[in-house]
Each structure stands twice: as structure tokens, then as C-alpha cells.
């Protein structure tokens, strides 16, 4: 197969045009549309920064241009001004673009007309789309000068044609035209640019700017006045006038030099106060490059960059990213580079089992020193560790059975002979393909002795010449071996030709993959690349080829609709077949390099083909069902990436009638109120247990439940309002409605309480983020029990409370209620904190029972709840009966999907958990996604937020990163706080084997608890690291029991994520005195049986 690529390698040159006008058009004639946001900014006196739009359409590809445009506008707002990007959309001159309009212009790219002043009328007349250059932007600014009192204008550079009287592309330079000077005198504008193009007549440009511009202004029907108008040229922090890409223009000087933004602002303000008519040109040079002279024998200032490389490693990573099962066989030193490489492989989810750490040599490194032109000056290569590469029996067995074995020239000839040795018996893998990458001229000749066994070699010209010169006399043996090897290549479909016609970075990606496949399978793949001289040529080719496409790709409409790059098609049996773009090309090869389907990969095509109806119009690009943290993060990220987004949030009242506002469980009835209640409990404990020994007398301290609830709810209501405002600012539509699926692209919206709906809306994609709700008790009278949906807003004090459940919610609520002075009992059916480390769970239970004084009813469940006449509740359970003021149910949560009508959309549930079944957040219906507590994932707010952001970036922003649900930190805010990251002791043993797991642990007494006589179990605070002894004692699990667990765990979680080892912890110098320093001094192992009590400082 042959891949043909047609691509642009340079941007089209800027068009030169002349400017002329004889009068000033009216607003009606100009079809002007000023955005409400710009008008409001002007009304309240906000400074305006005008922005040309050609840099968006023609300056860079989509979506980078959209990202740049939004970031520039955000930066302007950050500094207190207001941006007004100017463009022509659907025949209207728009001053100030919305996010959606910016996205539209950016997606048009170079298909939008590049509008100088001469082009405006033509684009407006045909109701087209155009991007303004500097001169046309200035034209618009002058037209709006009646109400644009003071404006700053950001531009790229000026242009003056050599030998021409006037052709200036900067805003003020455009004042050379008579009408422009006339109106510029009424509307001073400060223009910021990087100078003029260095290829132009710079002295003549400055002459016109700094001396005078002679203009003829009509005075009456038969009289004209000749006026002169100078334009001051300011050099920002320089007198040398810059030349766009360079910091100076060869001697040309700016009129004045100003060194700070304040000085520039003062100049503009003074000119305004003096009522001077002229504007200003502020030339800001690009940063000067660093010194380019390399001085030997001493240190040199420069830039450094470190990347993971190596021929074998690079090939392995590329194949892994193509979803090809791959094993990297290599050696690394026991040094920082070796540790870093192992962490990098782990971050890519690559199999590290073939990499052996050795203390005999340093990790292979290549250090290159490049000059300012990017050319190599000198380099040092230390590859000694690879010369005598070692591997274990497992790696050897995998090499014998692998479909392809790639080795490079860093190996010694003896190791190459071992790698290429036929498998024993030979029938084990007769189709094995051996590929040699020479690496360098010197190393290429090492393969000559075993070249007859090699099937594929990928040398450059110099390496090929060296190999040929080093071949032995009996070349027939080599030729016969190569011929025999060629017969082993798969030829089931015959040669195929992939042709790719393309432009831009995705073309480069597709071309690289196709070329690699040609190297790997030369008898099957032939890649042909077509490059256009520029991007416009490629677009023209697409447009001109429509008739040919219709005939060539019979019965396939996709080529006619394909507008992006690259354009890839297959030539097989003289019948062309359209492949598609970059993602389609990768998928094409991926399908042909795998013997069986593999798990979804972290690539841009992870959600490919989730919608196949690009031409169908929907009400919304994305509908997010659920206004919790994950749904809001997903919606705002999607809107930021240019999508039209609707968020639906509807809270069904709890059995006792509790409802809440926007923000989901965490904000309203979860993390936020729980942590505030916990803090209240901590304050109470400090007052009653610690204050006296620290010198404070607070014997009359009392607690007011109602005041606490009022304060907490006031804070939450403020967050609800902020979330609504934030959605509005992010251009996300919010509806307080319940969404029910009608089909896979339609939702019915209702709100019975507000008598709204039903209303149907359509969507291209949907995200389900409705979270979960508490499971009810299964005994008579269950409706009398409160849940976490109710306790934080309960108006009256809970009094004597029974907490049913052993989850972290149950223990946290029981803990803060006890700390606030209430009588609390916990009823537990079996174990505490199921799913957490059980050694830690046992310690928490003992602490809560002995230190906090919380009663436990174990191995029991409620059998009935009866409300008594006095308002109390009589609870009967399997081991007894008692009366309580409040019963709090915290036995778990279930996904809130009952009213979504998922069957109508074809969304399947996991029958075991009842949660939505997803693969990388994608449900069984390809265009519908789910995240947060509604799927089988950690039920944590930060997890949902991260998953939501990453999902939107993959769907709408060419993102490639998948959500990693491993090594996620969590904290449990029980009376003695608990933080953890990684595996529990039980899971570590199950994963790595008991014989390979070692546990370092230590009890300690927090210094802040050391003075109190009322904390007998303070010495039972505890820390442990669980390590894998077969992986250099890599830490599998981190567990901490003590004050400030969340803060400690968050910091150490970074180390766990980076695959820290036990030595990394021990070699870190701790901060003294802190509780977290315990992790830098852990020396006692559980296996030793030594007492783990702390011995003091």
C-alpha cells in the first residue's frame, strides 16, 4: 500500500494592497455590529484593546489559533482592559467577538478571506467571512471613533513598499490615507507592534511616521486644505527600532524611549489631557536571543532540555502508542536517570519487566551541545551499559516468540548474535521478523556477521555505505538469507498503496506512521507523500478535486465532505479507497498490526466514530446531565473549547424533604459541609482537651448547633451562586430541569415543582454526571432515618444519635457529632471501612471507641424504627433495642439513574454494581459518556473533576490523556484523621505476593497533642509504607493516621505518583518538628517483630 501526502510547508505571503478613500461611510453602509459586551465596557469606562484577526485565520492552524485567541483575550481582561477582536462574519463587521464567534473564525482558518481595506466591501457584499489585517482593523476603529474614546491596538508589524509613497499595514501608518488622518485626528489610538518587516524600507517608513504625512482634506465643494500630521514612534526599553523578528533594524532609531508600561500610559494620558490629535506607535522588540558564541574551557550560559530517548526505547514507545503489544529489553543504572526512565515507562503504562537495573554502569546518556543555529557542536555518548546488555529468561522467551524483534547498533556483535539466534526449536516461531537500526556509521558495521539473519535494516546513506564495505566476501549467503526472510513477511493481501494528501501537524503524524510501516513491512506497504507548496494550494486542490472525488470514490460521500488534513486514500487492485484523516490512518494501520482487538489506547482517536452525523444540526453540541463538580468541570472545559453546552441539574428531594442548589453532593451535602463540621469538632477538642495545658482558660465554652448550621449553609449558598455566575461567564447554559432520555440524541426536560416542561432538546453528545444518593435502610420505618443529604441542614440539634453504617461517611459524621458534645452510637453490621486498609480501620475503630468515647453496636442491623409520641425514635436491632433523638443512615450510596430512562438511549449498566458501564468514560452508546460516582470509579470529587476536564479535552481539543484512576489520594476525616495513597496492605500482598511485600511502620505522638493529659491514645498515631522488594522497594502504598492527614497525604501523593522508592523517602531530609517527617525515618519492618513505638526526637 502507498500513502500519499499532500502538504503545505509555508504560509502564504502577506498580500500587499493600497488604501484609498474619499469620504467616511455611515454605520448603515458599513454593516457594523458592535457586541453588547464592548458597548458595556465603553459605557463604564473600561479601556479597550482592539485585535486584528488575520493572525487567527492565517497565523496558525486550528485549534491552536483558537486557543491563542482566547488566551490573549483572557490576558487582556486579567489586566483590567477589554478585548475587541475585529472580523467580518456573515457579511457583518463585528467589533468584539464572542467565544463562539472566535471558534467559528478559527475553524474557518485560511478559508476566511484575508481582508485589507480594499477587500471589506467585497466580503460584506457577498455576506462572507473575513479576517481583518492591520489596515482594515484601523479602518473599523476610525469608523467607531465617535464612541471609542480611547483605544489601544495590538498588531504584528508595519509594511512600507520600497519606492512607494504609502503602504502601511500598522494602524497609525494607515493614516497616510486622507480620510484616515482626518478621523484619526479625532480618535487617538495607541498601536503596539513588533516593528516593521526587516525586508522593507525601514528608514522611509520612519520618515513618514516621524516627520509628516501630507494629506488633502476636503473643506468645501471647491476648497481643500493641506495638513501635516506626525506620529510619535516609541521604542519600548530601546532606542533601536525593531524589525519584527529582530531586535533592531540596522541603525534606525525610535523617536523616544520609554521603559515601563506606566511611562507609556502616562504619555497617552498626557496627550489626551492636552487634546493632541495624534496616536502613538509603541514598538516592542522580541526578546534578544542568548549569546551564540561557544567558549571552550569554561562554563557557557545556554538552555538545556532533557528528553527520554534511545533508538530502542523510541521504537518501543511508538509501537505502544499504536496499541502494539511491546516489551522494551534494556539495562539502566541505579542512578537518577535510571529511576526516571522506569517512572516514565510506568507513566506510559508500558511493561517495565524487560528493563534490568545494574550498578556496573551508568544509565546510557547522549549529551549534545548545539549552537544557536541548532547544529551540533559537540556530543558525548555513554552507551557502555548497552554494549553488554543483559536480559533474563522471561525476556529471552518473549524474544523467541515475538512477531518482530528490533535491535540497534549499541549492542556488541556477540549480543547481536544472541538476539538473532533462531528460536529453539526452529518451529517455535518461523515467522519472526528481525529489524536492525544501525544508530551510527561506527556501530552499523557490528551487524555484518549476522546480517544474513536480519529481515529489515533502516540505515541512512552513510550507514548503508559502511555496511556494504564491511560485508564479507560470501555475499551470496547474505542475499539468500534476505530472500528467505522476505518470504516470511505476511503477504495475505498483496502490496497496498496508501496515498496521503495533507497539510499541518496531523499530516506529519500520519506520514511518520506510514513511513514506519513501510520500513517494517516493505513488501506490503509503499507510502507516497505529496506536499503542496503552501496551505492555500492544498485547499484549492481539495476544492478543484470534488468532481474527480465523486467519480474516483464511487458510492462514498466522505471524501467530498473531508476538509481537514491529511487526506489519505488507499490504492489496491487499481481501485482507490478513501481512508480519512490522521486518526483514520492510525486506526487503519493499528487494525492491521494486531492479531486481536486490544484495550482502548490513550490516543486522539480514543473516542473516534462516537458520532457519524457531522452534517446533522442539533440544539446543543454537548448536554451535561448533573451539576456536580465533575459535570461542571466537563461543561466549562467544553465551552472553553468552543462547544455550545447545556447543563441540567435537578435535585430530587430526600425522603424528609431536603433539597439544595447547584454544585452537587460535594458542595452541598458532602465534602464541604462535612469538613466544616469536622473543623468545628476539632475546635471543641482543642478547647476541652488541650487549651488548659497550653495556658488558656476556657471552662465556659459552649456549642450552638443552630449557629453552626446557619454559618455552613450561608457559605454553601454563596458557592451555589458563584457556580451559577461562573457558568454564565463561561458561556454555559444552565437549566434547573430533570433530563430524561427519549433516544440517543434527544432529552425531555421537566421540572414538576416549578411546572416547567416537558420540552425536548437534541444533542450531539451527552455526559451523565448525576452522582449518587444514599441507599435507604431495608427495615420498617426506614423513612424516619436521616442521611447525609439531611444532617448538615438539620435545623435543631441532633441530640442522642444512632449512626447506622461502617462507611467513611458514617464514621466521619459520628466523629464530628461526638466532638460537638452529642451522645453517639455506631451500629456496624461487619467490618469498618470496607475497601480501605484493615489494619488502619481497626486502629481508627479503637481510637473512636477508647479515645472519643463513641459506643459501638457490632454485628447488628436495624429491624425496625418507630417514631414515638415525644418525637424520639425507638430502634430495634438484631441484638437489642434503644431510643434515640436522631437516626442517621450511612450504609452506602447508589447511582442516581432511575429517572434517566437509560434504556431509551441504549445505555447499559454494570449488573454487579448497578452503575453505568463505561470504557474510558464512554458508555455502550458511543455519543453518550458518564463520569463521577455514577460509574465504577473512586467516588471522590477531584477524580470526577479531572475526568471531566480530560474527557472534554479529548472530545473537543485533540487531547490524548486518559484518566488514570490509580494512585489517587484520599483522606477520611474521623476523630483521628486518616490519609492514604496506593494499595492497602491486603491488596499489595494479593498483587505482588506476600514474600515480595515489606511494610515499614512507626507509631508517633504529634507534638501538638503531647502536652494534653486527656489524649491517652495520642501515642497511637501511626504511619506505614508498603514496598515491593522486587522493584527496588518501590512504594506500593502510603498510610498515615494523625492530625492534618489530608495535607500530609496530598504532598506525599505526588511522590507515590512518580513511583518513589523507600530510599527516596529515607534520603529526604524531613522538616522538624512535624508529623510528616516520620516518613523520612521509617526503619522498623512489621516482619522484624520489633516494637514500632516512637522513641522520641
TrEMBL record:
Residues covered by the Carbohydrate kinase PfkB domain: 304-477
Keywords from the UniProt entry: Disulfide bond, FAD, Flavoprotein, NADP, Oxidoreductase, Redox-active center, Selenocysteine
Ranges for domain Pyridine nucleotide-disulphide oxidoreductase dimerisation: 970-1081
Span of domain FAD/NAD(P)-binding: 621-948
GO terms (BP aspect): cell redox homeostasis; cellular response to oxidative stress; glutathione metabolic process
One GO location term (cellular component): cytosol
Cofactor(s) recorded in Swiss-Prot or TrEMBL: FAD
Name of the protein in its database record: thioredoxin-disulfide reductase (NADPH)
Organism: Aphanomyces astaci
Amino acid at each position: 500500500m502507498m500513502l500519499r501526502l499532500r502538504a503545505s510547508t509555508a504560509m502564504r505571503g502577506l498580500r500587499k494592497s493600497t488604501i484609498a478613500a474619499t469620504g467616511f461611510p455611515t454605520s448603515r453602509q458599513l454593516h457594523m455590529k458592535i457586541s453588547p459586551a464592548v458597548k458595556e465596557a465603553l459605557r463604564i469606562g473600561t479601556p479597550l484593546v482592539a485585535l486584528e484577526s488575520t493572525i487567527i485565520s492565517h497565523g496558525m492552524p486550528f485549534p491552536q489559533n483558537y486557543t491563542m485567541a482566547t488566551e490573549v483575550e483572557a490576558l487582556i481582561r486579567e489586566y483590567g482592559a477589554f478585548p475587541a477582536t475585529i472580523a467580518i462574519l456573515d457579511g457583518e463587521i463585528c467589533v468584539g467577538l464572542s467565544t463562539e464567534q472566535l471558534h467559528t473564525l478559527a475553524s474557518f482558518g485560511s478559508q476566511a478571506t484575508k481582508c485589507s481595506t480594499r477587500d471589506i466591501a467585497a466580503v460584506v457584499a457577498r455576506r462572507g467571512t473575513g479576517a481583518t489585517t492591520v489596515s482594515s482593523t484601523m479602518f473599523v476603529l476610525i469608523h467607531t471613533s465617535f464612541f471609542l474614546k480611547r483605544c489601544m491596538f495590538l498588531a504584528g508589524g508595519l509594511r512600507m513598499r520600497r519606492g512607494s509613497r504609502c503602504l502601511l499595514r500598522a494602524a497609525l501608518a494607515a493614516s497616510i490615507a486622507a480620510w484616515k488622518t482626518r478621523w484619526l485626528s479625532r480618535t487617538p489610538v495607541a498601536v503596539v507592534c513588533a516593528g516593521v518587516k526587516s525586508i522593507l524600507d525601514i528608514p522611509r517608513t520612519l520618515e513618514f511616521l516621524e516627520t509628516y504625512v501630507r494629506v488633502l482634506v476636503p473643506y468645501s465643494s471647491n476648497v481643500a486644505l493641506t495638513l501635516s500630521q506626525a506620529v510619535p514612534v516609541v521604542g519600548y526599553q530601546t532606542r533601536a527600532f525593531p524589525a519584527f523578528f529582530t531586535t533592531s533594524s540596522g541603525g534606525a532609531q525610535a523617536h523616544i524611549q520609554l521603559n515601563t508600561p506606566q511611562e507609556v500610559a502616562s504619555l497617552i494620558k498626557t496627550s489626551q489631557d492636552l487634546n493632541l490629535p495624534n496616536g502613538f506607535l509603541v514598538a516592542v522588540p522580541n526578546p534578544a536571543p542568548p549569546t551564540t558564541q561557544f567558549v571552550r574551557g569554561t562554563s557557557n550560559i545556554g538552555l538545556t532540555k532533557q528528553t527520554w530517548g534511545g533508538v530502542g526505547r523510541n521504537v518501543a514507545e511508538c509501537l505502544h502508542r499504536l496499541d502494539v503489544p511491546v516489551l522494551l529489553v534494556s539495562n539502566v543504572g541505579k542512578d537518577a536517570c535510571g529511576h526516571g526512565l522506569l517512572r516514565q515507562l510506568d507513566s506510559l503504562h508500558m511493561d517495565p519487566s524487560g528493563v534490568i537495573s545494574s550498578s556496573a554502569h551508568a544509565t546510557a546518556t547522549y549529551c549534545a551541545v548545539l549552537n544557536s543555529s541548532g547544529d551540533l557542536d559537540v556530543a558525548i555518548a555513554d552507551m557502555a551499559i548497552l554494549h553488554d546488555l543483559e536480559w533474563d529468561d522471561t525476556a529471552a522467551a518473549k524474544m523467541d516468540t515475538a512477531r518482530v524483534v528490533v535491535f540497534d547498533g549499541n549492542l556488541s556483535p556477540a549480543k547481536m548474535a544472541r538476539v538473532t539466534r533462531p528460536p529453539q526449536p526452529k518451529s517455535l516461531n518461523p515467522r519472526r521478523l528481525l529489524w536492525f537500526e544501525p544508530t551510527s556509521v561506527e556501530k552499523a558495521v557490528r551487524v555484518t556477521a549476522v546480517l544474513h539473519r536480519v529481515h529489515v535494516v533502516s540505515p541512512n546513506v552513510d550507514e548503508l555505505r559502511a555496511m556494504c564495505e564491511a560485508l564479507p566476501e560470501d555475499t551470496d549467503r547474505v542475499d539468500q538469507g534476505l530472500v528467505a526472510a522476505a518470504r516470511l513477511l505476511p503477504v495475505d493481501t498483496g502490496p497496498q498503496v496508501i496515498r496521503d494528501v495533507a497539510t499541518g501537524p496531523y499530516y506529519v503524524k500520519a506520514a511518520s506512521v506510514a513511513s514506519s510501516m513501510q520500513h517494517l513491512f516493505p513488501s506490503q506497504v509503499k507510502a507516497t507523500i505529496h506536499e503542496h507548496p503552501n496551505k492555500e494550494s492544498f485547499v484549492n486542490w481539495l476544492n478543484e478535486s470534488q468532481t474527480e472525488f465523486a467519480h474516483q470514490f464511487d458510492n462514498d460521500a466522505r471524501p467530498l465532505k473531508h476538509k481537514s488534513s491529511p487526506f489519505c486514500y488507499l490504492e489496491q487492485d487499481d481501485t482507490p479507497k478513501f481512508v480519512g484523516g490522521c486518526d483514520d490512518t492510525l486506526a487503519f494501520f493499528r487494525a492491521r498490526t494486531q492479531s486481536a482487538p486490544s484495550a482502548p489506547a490513550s490516543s486522539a482517536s480514543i473516542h473516534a466514530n462516537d458520532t457519524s452525523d457531522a452534517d446533522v444540526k442539533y440544539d446543543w453540541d454537548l448536554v451535561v446531565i448533573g451539576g456536580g463538580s465533575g459535570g461542571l468541570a466537563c461543561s466549562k472545559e467544553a465551552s472553553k473549547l468552543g462547544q455550545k453546552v447545556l447543563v441540567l441539574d435537578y435535585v430530587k428531594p430526600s425522603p424528609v424533604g431536603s433539597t439544595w442548589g447547584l454544585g452537587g453532593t460535594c458542595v452541598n451535602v458532602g465534602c464541604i459541609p462535612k469538613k466544616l463540621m469536622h473543623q468545628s469538632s476539632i475546635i471543641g477538642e482543642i478547647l476541652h482537651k488541650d487549651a488548659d495545658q497550653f495556658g488558656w482558660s476556657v471552662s465556659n465554652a459552649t456549642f450552638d448547633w443552630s449557629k453552626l448550621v446557619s454559618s455552613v449553609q450561608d457559605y454553601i449558598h454563596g458557592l451555589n451562586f458563584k457556580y451559577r455566575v461562573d457558568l454564565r461567564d463561561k458561556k454555559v447554559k444552565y437549566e434547573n430541569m430533570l433530563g430524561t432520555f427519549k433516544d440517543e440524541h434527544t432529552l425531555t426536560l421537566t421540572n414538576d415543582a416549578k411546572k416547567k416542561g416537558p420540552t425536548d432538546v437534541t444533542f450531539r453528545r451527552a455526559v451523565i454526571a448525576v452522582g449518587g444518593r444514599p441507599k435507604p435502610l431495608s427495615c420498617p420505618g426506614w423513612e424516619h432515618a436521616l442521611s447525609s443529604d439531611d444532617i448538615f441542614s438539620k435545623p435543631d440539634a441532633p441530640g442522642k444519635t444512632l449512626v447506622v453504617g461502617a462507611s467513611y461517611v458514617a464514621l466521619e459524621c459520628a466523629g464530628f457529632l461526638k466532638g460537638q458534645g452529642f451522645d453517639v452510637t455506631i451500629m456496624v453490621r461487619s467490618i469498618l471501612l470496607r475497601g480501605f486498609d484493615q489494619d488502619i480501620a481497626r486502629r481508627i475503630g479503637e481510637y473512636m471507641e477508647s479515645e472519643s468515647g463513641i459506643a459501638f453496636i457490632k454485628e447488628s442491623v436495624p429491624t425496625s424504627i418507630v417514631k414515638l409520641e415525644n418525637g424520639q425514635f425507638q430502634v430495634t436491632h438484631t441484638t437489642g433495642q434503644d431510643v434515640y433523638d436522631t437516626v442517621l443512615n450511612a450504609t452506602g450510596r447508589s447511582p442516581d439513574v432511575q429517572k434517566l430512562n437509560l434504556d431509551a438511549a441504549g445505555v447499559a449498566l454494570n449488573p454487579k454494581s448497578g452503575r453505568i458501564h463505561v470504557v474510558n468514560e464512554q458508555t455502550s452508546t458511543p455519543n453518550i459518556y458518564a463520569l463521577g460516582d455514577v460509574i465504577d470509579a473512586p467516588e471522590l470529587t477531584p477524580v470526577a473533576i479531572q475526568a471531566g476536564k480530560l474527557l472534554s479535552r479529548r472530545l473537543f481539543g485533540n487531547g490524548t490523556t486518559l484518566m488514570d484512576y490509580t494512585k489517587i489520594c484520599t483522606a477520611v476525616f474521623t476523630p483521628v484523621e486518616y490519609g492514604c495513597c496506593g494499595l492497602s496492605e491486603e491488596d499489595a500482598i494479593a498483587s505482588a505476593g506476600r514474600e515480595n511485600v515489606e511494610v515499614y511502620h512507626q507509631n508517633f505522638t504529634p507534638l501538638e497533642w503531647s502536652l494534653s493529659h486527656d489524649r491517652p491514645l495520642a501515642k497511637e498515631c501511626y504511619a506505614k509504607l508498603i514496598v515491593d522488594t522486587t522493584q527496588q522497594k518501590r512504594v506500593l502504598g502510603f498510610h498515615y493516621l494523625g492530625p492534618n492527614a489530608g495535607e500530609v497525604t496530598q504532598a506525599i501523593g505526588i511522590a507515590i505518583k512518580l513511583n518513589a522508592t523507600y530510599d527516596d523517602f529515607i534520603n529526604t531530609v524531613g522538616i522538624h518538628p512535624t508529623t510528616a517527617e516520620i516518613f523520612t525515618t521509617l526503619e522498623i519492618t512489621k516482619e522484624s517483630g520489633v516494637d514500632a513505638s516512637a522513641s522520641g526526637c
